[in-house]
Design a protein that fits this description.
7-stranded mixed beta sheet, Glucose Oxidase, domain 1, 10 helices, 6-stranded mixed beta sheet, 2 domains, Rossmann fold, 297 residues
């Protein structure tokens, strides 16, 4: 996987809203932090736009993002919010100038659509906080983002737990929002899962829907190809009136425990305050022991 140039002081970060609308206060807070890191900040024309649920029409959001891809002085595109909307424009974008002058695509949740696209093009990207996280996230979430952008190595750690499957693995890191990955299986955007370390996170899903997605991954052969599996936050999950009867960890282990790969739960990734940065497409090492889980980025 090719690595876009790491940022240096004076580089420009472009904030674009390819999905849901965002509040101005979060953008201004993010701008201040990025400028304190020595970076310049540029807002897309419709970064604060509103068109029903979205930050603008499909055409407006696509044009904003396209400009960021095309303009060579832009060194990173920070998506301002997830929600839904990236899939509506991803295939309308022309990626030729991105390939000629690659830059970091940053975000999580619905931005997983773009991460998969960039991965299929052969480039790394960054899964991490967006403006809400810059405003309300942990210091670790901001500092790991800074380290990822400037090319400094670091380690993500999670406490040991009874559901972990112990072991070690080295592989290329992929992943993101589980629902987005599920929605793009068998499409041209889907990741290649062979010899990868996969991480998953999600929010607001019913337990039976999580179970359905896990079965789909299993039947598609995804889990059989992996070197390791990392689970982040599965937050605000819902149950049915008649309880489904199993916790999310049990649902996951039922599909992967037999595979003999390391499995690590409760990593600081996802729709949580401590949403630490991950460089997708990077070769990483996962260690899951009885005392600690560690992911060397």
């Amino acid at each position: 996987m090719k690595t876009p140039p790491y940022l240096v002081a004076g580089d420009t970060v472009y904030l674009s809203s390819p999905a849901k609308a965002v509040d101005e206060a979060f953008l201004l807070k993010t701008k201040g932090i990025l400028e304190a890191w020595g970076l310049k900040v540029l807002f897309a024309p419709h970064v604060l736009g509103r068109h029903h649920y979205f930050s603008g029409t499909d055409e407006e959001r696509c044009a904003d993002f396209q400009w960021g891809l095309d303009f060579p002085e832009i060194k990173a595109i920070l998506c301002t919010r997830g929600g839904y909307g990236c899939v509506r424009i991803v295939n309308q974008l022309n990626w030729d100038r991105f390939i000629a002058n690659p830059k970091w695509i940053i975000g999580f949740s619905d931005v997983t659509v773009f991460h998969q696209k960039v991965n299929r093009l052969g480039y790394q990207s960054i899964h991490g906080i967006m403006p809400l996280g810059f405003s309300e996230g942990t210091e670790a979430s901001r500092q790991t983002m800074k380290r990822a952008l400037f090319g400094d190595s670091y380690v993500l750690e999670a406490p040991s737990g009874p559901n972990n499957v112990l072991g070690e693995a080295t592989g290329t890191l992929i992943g993101g929002n589980m629902t987005i990955l599920y929605s793009l299986l068998a499409t041209d955007l889907s990741y290649s899962f062979s010899d990868k370390i996969l991480f998953l996170e999600d929010i607001g899903e019913h337990l039976y829907k999580i179970d359905r997605m896990l079965y789909a991954f299993e039947m598609a052969g995804v889990f059989n190809e992996l070197k390791g599996l990392v689970l982040g936050g599965f937050t605000e999950l819902e149950d049915t009136d008649v309880p489904f009867g199993q916790e999310v960890s049990a649902l996951i282990l039922a599909r992967v425990e037999r595979l003999g790969i390391p499995v690590a739960f409760d990593f600081p990734i996802g729709h949580i305050a401590d949403n630490q940065a991950l460089t997708l497409g990077k070769r990483v090492h996962l260690s899951v022991s009885s005392s600690m889980s560690r992911l060397l980025i």
